[in-house]
Amino acid sequence: MPNQYKQADRASTLASMCRKAIRLKARLLFISLVIVSGCSSAYIDNRAKSVHFKDGVFKNHVNMERGIWAFIKMRTRTEYAEWPTWIEAAEQPDPISRQSGDDLRLTVINHATALIQAEGYNILTDPIYSDRASPLSFAGPKRVRAPAISFEKLPKIDVVIISHDHYDHLDLPTITRLVARDNPKIYLGLGVGERLASMNNVTEMDWWQRVDVGKAFALSFVPVQHFSGRSLFDRSSTLWGGYVLEINGRKIYFGGDSGYANHYTETYKKFGPMDLSLLPIGAYAPRDFMGYYHLDPKQAVQAHMDLRSRRSVGIHYGTFQLTAEPIDEPKKLLALEKANAGVDDDEFITLEFGKPYIIQ
């Protein structure tokens, strides 16, 4: 074969190979686009349908916004109490696998994480097992005590309720472990589901929305006075709230994180008195800033009375130093404010972390 024909043949072969490679690349690109499209469409954003979502953000019923500059000013001018670096806790008995019968069993694990066991259901609130309430493993609020129930000793979890997406309430490493182990039903506010878009069994909720979880078990997402966000650029872009759990005729309120406003009275008007309320009592100082978003013990007592709660238990204290007050002050002030308000001592209590509390 003459040399010029051999060169032409090689050129033709090379061109054919290039065309095949281009077609293959195009197919792969199409497949990747389909996959990406499928992944991105797995999350359906329903925020715009909510009457509480305006101009790209959610709004509290009472406008009490304090911006980033107010936070920086507060943080630089406030002297924080010194907390212990670590607290060794007494070992508690392992939790039971299920609570049968009519009794309700509550175990506060740490911060706003509590295990509620009733009617055979195991419910976990705002679970956090990470060392820090932070996006960083080396900076941010660090826990001063271990979770009172280790992750390995948690019973199988059926339901997780998440109040909002702040790092001390939505801890993605813990959620990932729970999903891998138990694949529980997860309930959270509008927009927060995008943080968990790769997971199934996730239900977003608007304020006052009610869902049936199972036999004789329904839960409702209710307003609280707070805000959301996991960076400087997504403040209040997802919905925060509390929960009312209705289990076999009993009503349990989980407050998550909140300042004081009329939403407690509104919740009472809608649902009637609570049998048990979990109310935050810590992370409140200084009041000129934190008062907008976090209850102090005096306001927690008022919230207890607004809800007409048969029993209330304090949460959200003594684990991560988020604010300026001393570590033991919330419990001391709670005792004082109960006495001032004429609330019986056993109506609103704090529990030893990890020790179960039975309501018959």
Description of the structure:
By secondary structure, this protein is an alpha/beta fold. The chain has 2 domains: 1-41; 47-359, Metallo-beta-lactamase, Chain A. It contains 7 helices and 16 strands. The chain has helices spanning 3-41, 68-77, 172-181, 263-271, 287-290, 297-306, 329-341; strands at residues 53-54, 57-58, 104-110, 113-118, 121-125, 159-161, 185-189, 202-205, 210-214, 217-222, 242-247, 250-254, 276-280, 312-315, 348-349, 357-359. α6 crosses α7 (329-341). Mean pLDDT is 89; it is low at 2-41.
Q: Major sheet: order of its strands?
A: 8-7-6-5-4-3-16
Point out poorly predicted stretches: 2-41
Share of residues in helices? 25-40%
The domain count comes to: 2
Q: SSE order in H/E notation?
A: HEEHEEEEHEEEEEEHEHHEHEE
Could you write a compact summary of the structure shown?
The protein has 360 residues and is α/β, with parallel strands linked by helices.
Overview features:
360 residues; alpha/beta; Metallo-beta-lactamase, Chain A; 2 domains; seven-stranded mixed beta sheet; 7 helices; 19% strand; globular; disordered N terminus
Chain-wise SSE layout:
Elements: H1 3-41, E1 53-54, E2 57-58, H2 68-77, E3 104-110, E4 113-118, E5 121-125, E6 159-161, H3 172-181, E7 185-189, E8 202-205, E9 210-214, E10 217-222, E11 242-247, E12 250-254, H4 263-271, E13 276-280, H5 287-290, H6 297-306, E14 312-315, H7 329-341, E15 348-349, E16 357-359
Helix pairs in contact: 6-7
